[in-house]
Design a protein that fits this description.
By secondary structure, this protein is of the alpha+beta class. The protein has helices at residues 41-54, 71-81, 91-98, 102-110, 138-147; strands at residues 2-8, 11-18, 21-28, 89-90, 123-124. Keywords: Cytoplasm, DNA damage, DNA repair, Methyltransferase, Transferase.
């Protein structure tokens, strides 16, 4: 397992990689530390891509990811990865696509282990923003949507 950090507008973002793929992204009240891990090219690329995303220079992540969890969790995360930068969809939209109840979609979005790279912030409620499991809660979701220019509904 390799971990690294990048500083962003949402705080220090910690990325974890295992077996050649990103497995976890977390941010907020994380203290960066010097890592003793062996060099990891996937981790280096993930950190570079996250920094470029926050700098407004990247609209699509290409690093490999590995989602832990049930087949359903993996299916929902795959569907979220297909939501283009700057666009949104609803829990109901994903429910139809995945043939599951919207509440199950919401739970799977909340269980996303790789937010930002797997853009659960782009999934909204039918009449509201929905939730967000990131460290800063709904405020971080709003920030990410505005950053992507998907915030017409928020202005």
């Amino acid at each position: 397992m390799a971990q690294g950090y990048v500083t962003t507008e949402l705080g220090h973002v910690r990325v974890t990689c295992e077996d050649g793929a990103v497995t976890r992204v977390r941010w907020g009240h994380i203290t960066p530390k010097i890592e003793d891990d062996a060099p990891d090219p996937v981790l280096d690329e993930a950190l570079t891509q996250i920094a470029a995303y926050f700098a407004g220079e990247l609209t699509e992540f290409t690093v490999p990811v590995s989602v832990s969890g049930s087949a359903f969790q993996k299916q929902v995360c795959g569907a979220m990865q297909d939501i283009p930068f700057g666009e949104t969809c609803t829990y109901g939209d994903l429910a139809k696509l995945c043939e599951a109840p919207a509440q199950a979609i919401g739970a799977a979005c909340g269980g996303n282990p790789i937010p930002i790279i797997i853009p659960c912030h782009r999934v909204l409620g039918a009449n509201n923003l929905g939730g967000f499991s990131g460290s800063g809660g709904i405020e971080d979701k709003v920030w990410l949507l505005r950053h992507e220019g998907a915030a017409g509904l928020l202005i």
